[in-house]
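Anyone up for a design puzzle?
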């Protein structure tokens, strides 16, 4: 029958071919799609996969940023304090040399004694005034009084040049206290340490290292908050965290 009707045979053959070709084509398309996906993944196709991690990019949390800022501030302040201390020691050395020169020059008359006694009296007044302005610095005040006592002993021994040197040291300590008190008075938002010995820590946690100890009544200048902790700067330049309950004047 198919011989009699070749067109019918051909159409039947084509139909059978399509039934076989369609699944095969589907399988080929599936294989091509899979291969294309593999190639796309290998080539880093945007949208097909996430970009590889970049080791140079580090996700920093606010806490880590604040710690880095804190450590930089601490190191900067420490270097500045050391620089000021070196300047003070250099000035003290120059004054000591001048005092020795005055002593070696034989200036031991009444005028030298009068100058030493007068300078000592003026220094006592200055130290007492500084003690009232900065009551949070009892150790510095005690050191200044010790220098005044040394000056008195030198005057009694007729070492007027040495006496003037100790007077100068007491005056320097008093001047530092007065400058600190002036800074506290003109800085808004100043708070004061409420505890007897309060830890200044490197971070807002009781597990962070202690940078220094703050004495009761010491003024601090708040810079930031992370409840219940407060980032503060001391009058001397130290920076760190204190628990908010240990500060007054909020």
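Challenge accepted. My sequence:
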């Amino acid at each position: 029958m198919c011989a009699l009707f070749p067109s019918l045979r051909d159409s039947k053959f084509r139909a059978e071919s399509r039934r076989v070709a369609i699944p095969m084509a589907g399988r080929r398309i599936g294989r091509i799609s899979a291969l294309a996906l593999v190639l796309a993944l290998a080539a880093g196709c945007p949208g097909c996969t996430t970009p590889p991690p970049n080791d140079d990019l580090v996700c920093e949390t606010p806490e880590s940023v604040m710690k880095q800022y804190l450590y930089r501030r601490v190191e900067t302040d420490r270097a500045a304090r050391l620089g000021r201390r070196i300047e003070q020691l250099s000035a003290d050395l120059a004054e000591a040399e001048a005092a020795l020169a005055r002593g070696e020059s034989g200036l031991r008359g009444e005028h030298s004694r009068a100058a030493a006694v007068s300078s000592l009296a003026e220094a006592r007044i200055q130290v007492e005034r500084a003690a009232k302005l900065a009551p949070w610095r009892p150790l510095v005040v005690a050191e200044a009084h010790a220098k005044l006592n040394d000056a008195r002993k030198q005057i009694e021994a007729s070492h007027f040049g040495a006496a003037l040197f100790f007077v100068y040291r007491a005056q320097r300590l008093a001047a530092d206290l007065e400058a600190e008190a002036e800074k506290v008075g003109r800085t808004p938002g100043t708070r004061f340490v409420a505890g007897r010995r309060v830890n200044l820590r490197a971070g807002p946690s009781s597990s962070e290292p202690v940078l220094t100890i703050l004495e009761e009544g010491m003024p601090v200048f708040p810079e930031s908050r992370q409840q219940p902790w407060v980032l503060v700067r001391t009058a001397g330049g130290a920076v760190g965290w204190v628990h908010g309950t240990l500060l007054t004047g909020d």
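A detail worth pointing out: Confidence is low (pLDDT under 50) at residues 1-9, 20-30, 32-53.
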